[in-house]
Specification:
The protein is α+β, with helices and mostly antiparallel strands. The chain is 40% helix and 15% strand.
């Protein structure tokens, strides 16, 4: 079946098998930030955005993406670099394997939730697993990043 998607701003038309996962599709298209982890939609490593909303690409068929806009970390380099600096400064990047999916969800949360509490942040990111840390450094990095963004936005209004 031929599908048409916009992948990171680029129109793509590609023939896919009916059972091909979105994860495999985006990796075939060169988006290596999307990782294969648990294959049970429990770890968050395969997170991509479909029409601006996070989805687990290991549990979505590529044919479901037909006519939709798919964004991976490759399509969010500026935003990812900005948050990644906070993650690194707090020691939250450790081995880095979970970072792409984690960053995708943090950036989606930033767009979706206005001034989230620590509990809302934990709940939003509950599907992201990291074997290296206890999420303390990641939590600090998110709090500092969101505070920075709030300060930055406040400066634009002044």
């Amino acid at each position: 079946m031929v599908i048409n998607v916009i992948l990171n701003g680029k129109k793509i038309q590609k023939d896919v098998e009916p059972d091909q996962l979105l994860l495999d599709f985006v990796r075939e298209c060169g988006c290596c930030s999307v990782k294969r982890g648990c294959e049970t939609a429990n770890c968050g490593l395969c997170t991509v955005w479909m029409d601006g909303r996070p989805v687990l690409s290991c549990s979505v068929l590529a044919v479901r993406a037909d006519g939709h806009e798919i964004t991976t970390l490759e399509g969010l380099q500026k935003e990812a670099k900005e948050f990644g600096a906070f993650l690194s400064n707090e020691g939250g990047d450790q081995c880095g394997f979970c970072n792409p999916g984690f960053i995708m969800n943090v950036l989606a949360m930033e767009k979706e939730l206005s001034d989230p509490t620590e509990e809302e942040i934990r709940e939003y990111l509950s599907g992201n697993l990291c074997r290296c840390t206890g999420f303390v450094s990641q939590s600090r990095s998110i709090q500092k990043y969101l505070q920075y963004k709030k300060t930055e936005e406040g400066g634009k209004d002044a």
